[in-house]
């Protein structure tokens, strides 16, 4: 995977990726791919054995994968959540806030543009799946 971008310090997960339907039926599946329309909540009983969840974005305008990542993170999943497919640089920061920590875009992302996108706003204005404290809540710290 030449376009793999990771925001994690551990080794990339290279386990064979099972499709969503097959993953729940296989006791040895450690990586799964979610397609738009798949319900990420069906994976919750299997999170203890999963190392990687790939979330496919066949079109950049399909935002259902954001919810899948947030559901998994809020359920306590600490493995890699990788956005794959039509991932654009201006989506990466919001994807990160929803729980994505790796990206495998169809087209390479410019490294400078990626750095700018990830560091564009010093404060966040709403709560998300990440640990960032929203700016409106900082005055109460």
Notes on the protein architecture:
This protein is of the alpha/beta class and 141 residues long. Helices cover 26% and strands 17% of the residues. The chain has helices spanning 20-25, 64-74, 92-98, 111-118, 135-138; strands spanning 5-6, 18-19, 31-34, 52-57, 80-85, 102-105. It has a six-stranded mixed beta sheet. Strand 2, helix 1 and strand 3 (31-34) form a beta-alpha-beta unit. The N and C termini lie far apart (42 Å).
SSE topology:
Elements: E1 5-6, E2 18-19, H1 20-25, E3 31-34, E4 52-57, H2 64-74, E5 80-85, H3 92-98, E6 102-105, H4 111-118, H5 135-138
Parallel strand pairs: 2-3, 3-4, 4-5, 5-6
Antiparallel strand pairs: 1-6
Question: What brief labels describe this structure?
Answer:
TIM Barrel, 141 residues, 26% helix, alpha/beta, six-stranded mixed β-sheet
């Amino acid at each position: 995977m030449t376009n793999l971008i990771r925001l994690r310090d551990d080794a990339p997960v290279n386990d064979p990726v099972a499709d969503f339907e097959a993953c729940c039926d296989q006791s040895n599946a450690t990586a799964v791919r979610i397609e738009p329309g798949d319900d990420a909540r069906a994976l919750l009983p299997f999170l203890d054995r999963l190392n990687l969840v790939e979330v496919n974005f066949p079109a950049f305008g399909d935002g259902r994968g954001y919810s899948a990542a947030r559901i998994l993170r809020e359920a306590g999943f600490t493995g890699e959540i990788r956005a794959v497919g039509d991932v654009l640089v201006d989506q990466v920061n919001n994807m990160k806030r929803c729980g994505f920590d790796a990206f495998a875009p169809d087209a390479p992302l410019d490294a400078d543009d990626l750095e700018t996108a990830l560091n564009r706003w010093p404060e966040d204005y709403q709560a998300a799946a990440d640990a960032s404290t929203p700016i409106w809540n900082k005055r109460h710290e």
